[in-house]
Structure formats: structure tokens, C-alpha cells
Amino acid sequence: MPENQPTSKYINCAGWEIHYLEWGEPHFPPVLAWHGLARVGQDFDALARELADEFRIIAPDTIGRGLSQWSNNGDRDYCFEVYTQIALDLCDQLGMKEIRWIGTSMGGSLGMWAAGGLLKKRISHLVINDIGPNLAQDAIERIITYVGKTLEFNSMNELERYLRNIYAPFGYIPGDEWRKIVEASARRMPNGKLTTHYDPKIVRQFVIHPDDWSLWNEYDFITAKTLLLRGEYSDLLTTKTTGEMLNRGPRPTLLECKGCGHAPALNVPFQTEAIKAFLSS
């Protein structure tokens, strides 16, 4: 695997301080990589290292996550309309007129929202990682259960055990990647204990902005080349929804990822090589 190290940067976008990681050379074709609901840009490290010899990869932390600013009014601000404005301003400030978008879970939903709307003319290639224009209700309830709680941990090892359990469906993740995931997921509380590095209020997007997750109209307007990944055991992207996606809208190419659920970690050759080939097409 290439030893391409990311650069950590901060920028003010649409009124928010945004943290992002960057791999690759500034003159390379840009890729915007957007993480899942309770995750951070660091999740794309393995994939970005493989892409960085040909592409410039930008992976932001969404507001309310990681090192980006949190909202004082999450019910208003934790929604795709705000996230898309941030993405647009980020592209403008970094001089990215045409982009390739990789989105895992929520990042895939946001990609559909953007590629079928405000960023339709900018997104040339869209990678949707294990999510569809509608969501299985039992999967939503599972996500709400663990994301909406403020949990406390006495040590990094205790936090790692928790994360390994809830993210077991990601598939194979080597030990050094787990350490990066845990460190990017942790924040210290005033009482000295550890908790997860996101605002629990982000989960209220499912309640306050339910239309954000009903995306068939946006999906049907997508003209970008599209690659759809689905984890073999995914409970968020059903086989029924997958079949419908393949026959309407951008009619994506499907990559079935064996041995994992929601969502493929984009860290094994089968996945990274397919994505690299797609982005180069």
C-alpha cells in the first residue's frame, strides 16, 4: 500500500469551521469523500492512500462530527441542505470545478442529494457505498439506538471494544486501521472519561428531516457515472432497493462486497481497485 500521508486542514465553509484531510497532489483530479452518519473523514485513509497517486482526495468531517464545528441548533442545521451548501463552498474555495464523489452510508445519501440537485453539473462520477434512496426501518432504528446516546468509557481499549462490536459489519479491518478509527472517534469529557467524537443530536435528522432520506426524485435526476457498492449482509440497503436502483436513474454498476454488512470499509483490494478503475473511467 502506498505510504501517502494525509494533510490535516481547516477551512470556513458556509459559516462553519470544517476540518478535512487531504491526500494527493493539488493538480490531480479531485475526489470528495464523505463519511457515514457518526463517522469522520479519517475513515477513507486506506482507500485514499491507494488513490493518491492519481487523484486529490478531500475528506471532510461533517459538522457535528470529529474536529469540525458543532451546531447550537442541531434540529435546524444537521440536514442535507446545510451539508450540501458546505460541500459547494468547499469545492469553490479549493478550486474544484468538477469532482468525483465517494459517499459511505450517509455520505452516499448526501451524494445522491447533491448529484441530483445543487451539484448535478459538478459531479462526474458518483460512488454510493451501501445505501439507497429509501432506508429499511429496522436499520434506522438500530442506528438511532446507538448514535443517539452519550456513552462513557474509562479507557481507549474499552472504547475500541465497543467500536469493534458496533462496526463489526464493516468487514475485515487490520489492527493498525482500528487504532486510527478509535483515535479519530474519541473525545475526552470534562469528567476525564472518553466518549464518541460526535454530537448525539445528529441522529435527530431522521426525525426532524425525514425527507432527507427519501431520495428517489433526486436519484432519478442523477446523470453522473455511478457505482453502487452493497455489503453482502447489509441491513440498510436491501436487495429489493438495490434491484430498483439498477433499473432507474443513473443505472449504476453494482459491486457486491462479500463477507461484510453495512458498510464495506473500502480497505481491501477488491473494493479499492474497483473504485480506482471506476474513477479513472
Describe the secondary-structure layout.
Blueprint: E1 7-13, E2 16-23, E3 30-34, H1 45-51, E4 56-60, H2 74-77, H3 80-93, E5 99-104, H4 106-115, E6 123-129, H5 137-147, H6 156-166, H7 175-185, E7 186-188, E8 194-196, H8 205-208, H9 216-220, E9 225-231, H10 239-246, E10 253-257, H11 269-279
Parallel strand pairs: 3-4, 3-5, 5-6, 6-9, 9-10
Antiparallel strand pairs: 1-2, 2-4, 7-8
Helix pairs in contact: 6-7
Which CATH C-level class is it? Answer: Alpha Beta
- Note the beta-strand portion: 15-25%
Fourth CATH level, the homologous superfamily: Alpha/Beta hydrolase fold, catalytic domain
The number of helical elements comes to: 11
Count of extended strands? 10
How many structural domains?
1
What is the strand arrangement across the widest sheet?
A: 1-2-4-3-5-6-9-10
Give an account of the 3D structure.
- With 281 residues, the protein is an alpha/beta fold.
- The protein has a single domain (7-279), classed as Rossmann fold (3-Layer(aba) Sandwich), CATH 3.40.50.
- The protein has eleven helices and ten strands.
- The protein has helices at residues 45-51, 74-77, 80-93, 106-115, 137-147, 156-166, 175-185, 205-208, 216-220, 239-246, 269-279, and strands at 7-13, 16-23, 30-34, 56-60, 99-104, 123-129, 186-188, 194-196, 225-231, 253-257.
- The strands form two sheets. An eight-stranded mixed β-sheet has the order 1-2-4-3-5-6-9-10, sandwiched between helices. It has a two-stranded antiparallel ribbon with strand order 7-8.
- The chain starts with 6 loop residues before the first strand and ends with a helix.
- The relative contact order is 0.16.
- The model has no long low-confidence stretch (mean pLDDT 95).
